[in-house]
C-alpha cells in the first residue's frame, strides 16, 4: 500500500513539471530561471529579475547610440571667494577685541561695505601707557602757553612784527596736530567690512587678544563664488572649456589659468553660472569635470550605469530580454558631472541606467 502511494506521488510530480509551462520546452537553464519567483544569477552569468522586482527597484534603460563629444578631464578643486565680491578683516595691530555698535557679527550675518564690525584697543604696557600720558600732559601744557602767547601778540598787533604773530599761530597749530595724533594712536581702531555680503567665518569674541594680521572675519557674496582647480599639464589650460561639478547639475564657465606653477600645478578658475553659486560653501572640496577641445567617440550614459563585475572591471548591464540582464565590460571616460562615455557595447543595446547597482549585487 505504501509503495503504491509513493508511485502515485512521483507520477503526479512528473506530470506537474511537464505541464507547468503549457508544454513548452525552454531548455534546462532557462527553465530554472523562469520557474523561480525571485532574482537570481544564472549559470551563464546572466541575471534573472522578475518584472515585479524591476518595478520595485525602478530599473530604467536607455538605447545606446554612438556619438562624438568633447573629451573631459577630472580635476581636483575647491571653492574660493571672488576677490571682487568678498574680503578678509584682519587686525592691523596687536590689541583687544571690543564689539562694534551693533555687537560682534556672527556666522551668516549680512553686512554692508564700510560697516563697523568691531574695534581693536591697542595693547600697550604700563610703562608705555605712562609715557604716553606724560607726553600728552606736556603737549597740553605747551599748547596752553603757546595759545596765551599768541593772544598777547595779536593784542599788540601793529607794534609787533607780523612774522612773530604768524610764528605763534603756526606753533599752536602744530601742537594741536601732535596732540590729536597722539590721542588717535591711543584710541581704539575700528574694523570695517571691505565688501557687502555675509559673514562666512568669524574668529572674534569680546575681550580676545589678537596679533597683527590675525584674520577675524571673512566676508563673501554667496551668489559670486568661484572654483579653483589644479591642472598638472600646462598645455591643457589652453583647451579647457566649460565644466561641471561631479554629482551635480551645476555648469561652470572657464575664466582663465595661471601662468606660474604653484606647488607643481597650475591653478585654473571657473565661475558658476548665475543663481547656482549659492549652493557652494567657501573652502568646499569638490571634483570638476572640464571639457577640452579633443573629441572622443562612444555612448554617453549616466554615471549610475557603471558597476564593477566579478573581475573588478568596469561594466554595464544590458537588458537582453524582458527579465534577463547581461553584464558587459566597457571602457569608461568622464564626460561631465553626471554622464560618462562608454565603449565596448553594441549600438542599439539597452543599457541599464537606474538600478544597475542592485542588479550587480544578485548572486
TrEMBL record:
One of the GO biological process terms: plasma membrane copper ion transport
Keywords, comma-separated and alphabetical: Coiled coil, Signal, Transport
Keyword Signal: yes
GO cellular component labels: outer membrane-bounded periplasmic space
Entries under SUPFAM superfamilies matching the protein: HlyD-like secretion proteins (SSF111369)
Signal peptide bounds: 1-20
Name the record gives this protein: Multidrug efflux pump subunit AcrA (Membrane-fusion protein)
Lineage of source species: Bacteria, Pseudomonadati, Pseudomonadota, Betaproteobacteria, Neisseriales
Coiled coil: 129-178
A molecular function (GO) term: transition metal ion binding
